[in-house]
C-alpha cells in the first residue's frame, strides 16, 4: 500500500466510525443527534468500539475451542478494572482514529472518556492487581478467563462532610454498561443449605449426594479484555445471582405471589454489594454465600468448557490452571472435590489428584485479623456437604503430618484445617495450602516472611511449594493511558517498544545527564501538576503553586500504612515555621487520598485528623502558603490516573513487615516520582532496582521491629525523649486542630502513647530527618530530575508482564497462544 492508499483507507475507516456513532445513537439509544445526551454519545461511542473488537473476541474464543491450549482461570472476589473506554482504545490502537471521528462529529473524546463510571468492583490493591494481570495475560497472548462477582453496587463512593468520611452507594450500572454481554444460556445453578444423603450407586458403591435447601442461578456477564496491539481478546466473566426461572411455580399454585417475590429478592441479594473491608475479616454469612456462589459457577463453567472437547475430566489440569486470589475463593477446594465425586462420580484419590493439580493459591497479607476463618456452625449450615469433605481432607492430611512428624501435637493443631483452640472454625488458608499445587507470596520480602513465620509449618512440610511472584502493574494503563505527556516524551526519545517490554526503559538512563532531555522531563511533570492545580483551584478554591513539591500518599486508610506518621511530619514542619517564621522550608503540597472501611473507627478518625490539620494549616497566614494539605475525596482508579503523573514524592511508609507488596509504590515510581519509604513489601525490590542513592530510605527493618517488640516497646520513652515529637502530640491533644475539643483525637493520641502497635514513634526521628534530605534534594532541580528519570528508567521489573511471565513459568506452565484471524467481521462493513 502506498501512502495515498493508506490515507484513503484511513479516511474510510473514520467515515465508518462516524456512521457507527450515528447508527448507535439512533438504533441503540433511540434518540436523534439533536436530543442525544452526553451519556447517549458516550454509550454510542463505546458500542462502536465494542463492535470493532467483537470479531477479535469471536476469533479468540473459536481458537481456544479448536486447539486445546491451557487456559488460566483467575478466580477473584474482586476486579478493580477502572474505566474501559480509554484503555481499550489504546490497546486496540484506535485512539487517534476515534479522536478524529468524534471531533468531526462535534464531540470531545476526552470529555466522553471522563464520563465513564468506573466499575469499582474491588477494595484496593488485591482487586487492582487482578485487573493488571488480565491486561498482561491478554497482551502476552495467554488464554485466560477472569472469574468473579458482578456486584450491583461496588466500592462505596466517599464524600467528605465536615472533615468526616461519608459513604454513598456506588450506582455504577445505572447509566448502562456498554462493555458487558449477558450470557443467559450459560447460567449455572448453585445450592445452599440442606443436608446430605448416602445412596448406593453403580456397582453398589456408597455415594453421597447433597440435597440443598435452596438453589440460586448464576448468570454470567462477559466483558472483553483486549491485549495491547494483538488479536487476542480474553474475557472477564462475572456472575450475577438470580432466582431460578422455575422458582415461583409452587408458590404461585398456592397463591403466595408475594412469597415468591420475596424469594426472588433474597436470591438477588447475593451479588448486591461488595464488602468494603480491605484487610479485616468479618465472618458474615452473606459473604460466604458470595464466595461459594461465584466459585461454584466458575468451576461448573470450567468443567463445561473442558467437556466440550474432552471425554472425561481426568486431565482437567492440562487444560486449566485456576489461581485463587487470596483465600476468598478457597472453598474451590471442597467444591471441586464435590463436583468430581458427587456429580462426575470420581473416587476420592483421583478427584484429589485433579483438584490439587488444578488449583494454586496466592497469599496477599500477613495481618492476623485478615485471615479468613468461618465458624463451624455457620459453615455447616450453609455448606454441609463441603464440611464433610473438609473433614475427610483434614483426616487424611493430619495422618500425613503424623507420619512425617510423630508425636508433634502442637504442629498438628497448628496445621489442622479446623481451629479447635476455642469455638471451632474452618481456617481457609490451611485449606488453600493443602488443596493446591503451589502457594505464592507477592513480593520477595513477603514470601520470605511467609516461609519463615506465617506459613513456616507448610514450608517444612512441603519444601519448594511456597514460591515468590513479585507483583507488577500494567504500563498500558499506568503510563500510556494515564500519562500521555510522559508517554510522548519517552516514545520520542527511545521508541515505543517499552510499552510491552518495560525493561527497554533502561535506554532512558543515558539521557539522565542530557540537559535538554531533563528540561523536557521537568516540563512534563510541571504541566501534569499545573493541570491538577487548576482543578483543585476550581473545585476546592485552594491556590496551589505548581513549583511546590507534590508529596502524595494515596491508599486505603489503615493504621499499619501509617498515614498518621505523615501527619506527624506535617505538624512538625508547622511547628518549626511557627517557632521560626524565617526558616527555609521548601513549599510542599501534601496530598492524601483513600477510603476507610466503614466500621474501622481509628481509620475514620485518621481521615478526620488529616482534614482538621488541613483546615488549620491551610488557613494560617504565618505559614505563607509554604505547606498546603489536600485530602482528595473518593480516591479510585480514575483519580489514580491523575495522581500518579503529578507526584514528586511517593509516601510508602508502612511499618516494616506489614505491607505484603504494595502496587501504588510501583505506579508512582514508573511515573517519575521519588519514594520515601521503609524496607517493606516491594519497596525493598524497588530500591534494589533504582539504586539506594535514588530512594529515600528510613525506619526500622522488620528484624528490628520484631526485636523491639519482643523486648517490650515503650512509645512513651520516645515521646519523653524527643521534644519535637512531644510538641506535635501535645498540640493534637490540646485541641489545636479540633476547635479546642480535646476528646476528638484522644483515641488516636492514647493509642499512640500507650500502645503504638505500628511503631510510629520509633520511626519518627528517622522519618523527619529523611524528609529534610528530601526537601534539600528537591531544591536542586537538576539532581531531582536526574533521580526521577533514573527511577522511571529502572522500573522494568515491575511491569505486570514480568509477573505474568513468572506465574506462567513457575506455577501455571502455560505458553503464549497467538490468535490468527480466521473469522471475518460480520456483516462485512
Ligand atoms: C488487599 O488489597 C491486599 C491484601 C489483602 O489481604 C486484601 C486486600 Cl483487599 C487479604 C493487598 C495488600 O495489602 C498489598 O500489600 C498488595 O500489594 C496487594 O494486596 C496485592 O497483592
Automatic annotation (TrEMBL):
Catalytic reaction equation(s): [(1->4)-alpha-D-glucosyl](n) + phosphate = [(1->4)-alpha-D-glucosyl](n-1) + alpha-D-glucose 1-phosphate
Record's keyword terms, sorted: Carbohydrate metabolism, Glycogen metabolism, Glycosyltransferase, Phosphoprotein, Pyridoxal phosphate, Transferase
Cofactor(s) it depends on: pyridoxal 5'-phosphate
InterPro entries the UniProt entry points to: Glycg_phsphrylas, Glyco_trans_35, Pyridoxal_P_attach_site
GO cellular component, one term: cytoplasm
GO MF annotation terms: glycogen phosphorylase activity; pyridoxal phosphate binding
Pfam families, per the entry: Phosphorylase (PF00343)
Record-listed E.C. numbers: 2.4.1.1
Positions where N6-(pyridoxal phosphate)lysine occurs in the chain: 667
Source organism superkingdom: Bacteria
Keyword Phosphoprotein in record: yes
Top EC class, one word: transferase
Any Gene Ontology biological process: glycogen catabolic process
Family of this protein: Belongs to the glycogen phosphorylase family.
Function of the molecule: Phosphorylase is an important allosteric enzyme in carbohydrate metabolism. Enzymes from different sources differ in their regulatory mechanisms and in their natural substrates. However, all known phosphorylases share catalytic and structural properties. Allosteric enzyme that catalyzes the rate-limiting step in glycogen catabolism, the phosphorolytic cleavage of glycogen to produce glucose-1-phosphate, and plays a central role in maintaining cellular and organismal glucose homeostasis.
Descriptive protein name: Alpha-1,4 glucan phosphorylase
